[in-house]
Amino acid sequence: RRTISRKQRSAANQRERRRMVSLNTAFDQLRTRIPTFPHEKKLSRIQTLKYATEYIAVMAELLKDHPKSDDCRSETESEGVSHGNQSENNDWRQKRN
Question: Where is this region: Disordered (predicted)?
């Protein structure tokens, strides 16, 4: 069995804390991109991943069903695609429940 000094353990703990802060920040950012009802509690990590996967699939299907004739989109259109419009978000919410 290998013994680890207090200094090494402390450094490893600090690295792990930084890793967890980074991971939690990434999940928080992902949660802001998933349309949810305002009254819903904070999504768990697994819920966040499941809903994000479903949402991406719905948005991909939407893009497949509504191809653009012009590949150049304005900034507003690009934002609309990345976040979906309100009725599309509502449709997705209904499908997931």
Answer: 66-97
How deeply is 51 buried, as exposed, middle or buried, from its count of CB atoms within 10 A (0-12, 13-18, 19+)? Answer: buried
Tokens of 60: 């991909």
- 63 vs 96: CA distance, rounded Å: 19
| SS3 state at 89 | helix
- Domain boundaries, position 19: 6-96
What is the mean predicted confidence (pLDDT) over 60-82? 65
Our measurement of the distance from residue 89's CA atom to the centroid of its chain's CA atoms, rounded to an integer in Å, reads 14
pLDDT of residue 37: 81
Alpha carbons 67 and 56: distance in angstroms, whole number:
16
